[in-house]
Amino acid sequence: MATQSDLDVLLSMGFDLERAQLAVKRTGGLQGAMDWLEENQDRPIEEIRAAPAATSSAPNDDEDPNAEPPALKEGEVAQSLVCDQCGKRFRSEAQASFHAEKSGHDQFSQSTEAIAPLTEEEKKARLQELREKLATKRAVMSEQDMIDKKKNEDIRKKSTKETQDLKEELQKKEQIKEAAAKRREKEADKLTKEKIKAKIAADKEERRLKAEKEKAEREGRAVAAAPPAAPMATTSGPVSSKPASAYTETRLRLQTPTGNVQKSFHVDTTLFEVAAALQTENGFQAQSFLQNFPKKVFDSIDFGQTLKELGLVPSASLIVR
User: Fold this and answer.
1) CA 17/CA 20 separation, integer angstroms
2) I need a labelling partner for 58 at 20 to 30 A (CA). Which of 43, 224, 264, 276 fits?
3) DSSP H/E element including 146
């Protein structure tokens, strides 16, 4: 019968209480309990708890009539049980039942040979062996935990990088939209100012003509005919020559490794927007632009300036790098 000291010994080795209690209960002694714990160390406690305790697995005449063990002689008393299939000896039926459950062996016989109990030295050696096995298993589990932790960290870093790339892409698109909105606002302001200036000039001319007419009437002179109004300048039709500041669009010829691209941009478009449009439409990411004449390199420092500020109006040819 297992004693409380057997349970204490198992607990001192580091086994949890429930496993130790099940081991002592199902085997009946310290040696059998250590065997049971060693054989069941990889089984989850839920599986062990759900499995019914093994019953005696003595041979069954109906199952195998040829496996009947030899009868004891007169006066002999059974001291142990022997597995006829592997030769392993057991002190009790509980240990034999446990062996039958684990190995599938079902042929046992009684023996008059008693199994000597473990000496203190043997117990200590067996306990040390179990401690070493337990420590090895924990070390393997710890190493696996580190591997799993590293994998999870790699997954987290990859997810973070993808999120950051997406965030940068959204920021880039937002910058393009903001730049376009500012350009439209600037154009609207410019148009409004031009209309105001034209209105002021027209009012001023009207007042001048009215004053001249009144003066001529007072002096009895004929009123000079007003000169025809000068036609408004338009962007259509032939234009002889005008300064770069008069242009609202510029035409760029962009030489890329995959071919030439010709595209018109508003003069207030930034070089950053040109690079973004080139990447979106042609899949080429520009790091800098080279102008052959006059010789000049536009790098990332110049990307915030407009085409007008960089002197790329009314047209320019750039090599994309």
Assistant:
1) 5
2) 43
3) helix 120-219
- Of 260, 234, 264, 238, which Cα lies nearest the Cα of 252? 264
Q: Which among 272, 276, 267 is positioned nearest to 313, based on CA atoms?
A: 267
Surface-to-core class of residue 301, CB atoms within 10 Å of its CB (0-12 exposed, 13-18 middle, 19+ buried): exposed
Which strands, in side-by-side order, build the sheet including 80-83? 89-90, 80-83, 108-111
Give yes or no for a contact between 302 and 288, defined as CB atoms under 8 angstroms apart: no
| Pair 268, 306: CB distance under 8 Å | yes
Rounded to whole angstroms, the Cα distance separating 198 from 231 reads: 12
Q: Minimal CA–CA distance to 51: which of 13, 78, 25, 88?
A: 25
pLDDT in tens, 117-140: 667 787 778 778 877 877 887 788
Pairwise CA distance, residues 52 & 61, whole Å: 24
Residue 231 tokens read as 């036609």
pLDDT surpassing 70 at residue 101? yes
Q: Would you tell me how many other CB atoms lie within 10 Å of the CB of residue 97? A: 21
